User: Which sequence fits this backbone?
């Protein structure tokens, strides 16, 4: 399955959110970690992932959207923000910081 078909316009996402049993979540997916996927699965319903531009991102917005779309728990991905969506971006920042520290410590060990 080409999961890129899960990426839809924001207006369509807003409509689907009203008509389907989805949880809207703001994500960065920069990077995408297993802990993110587990946290999304714990929400118990299919996810409408919302992504926006991000400063100092490892990946561009399109690549991050495609990563989000690759998750089985994510039904749709849209670019933009919707009011009332859960915001996982702060959690992702702490996960990203942990990952960066791990990479730095591993590189210093050599």
Assistant:
């Amino acid at each position: 399955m080409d999961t890129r078909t899960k990426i839809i316009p924001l207006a369509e996402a807003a409509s689907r959110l009203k008509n389907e049993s989805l949880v809207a979540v703001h994500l960065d997916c920069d990077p995408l970690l297993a802990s993110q996927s587990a946290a999304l699965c714990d929400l118990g319903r299919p996810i409408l992932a919302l992504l926006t531009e991000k400063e100092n991102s490892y990946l561009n917005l399109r690549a991050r959207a495609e990563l989000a779309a690759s998750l089985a728990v994510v039904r749709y991905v849209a670019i933009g923000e919707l009011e009332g969506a859960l915001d996982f971006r702060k959690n992702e920042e702490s996960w990203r910081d942990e990952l960066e520290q791990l990479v730095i410590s591993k590189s210093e060990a050599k």
Summary: The chain has four helices and four strands. The radius of gyration is 15 Å.
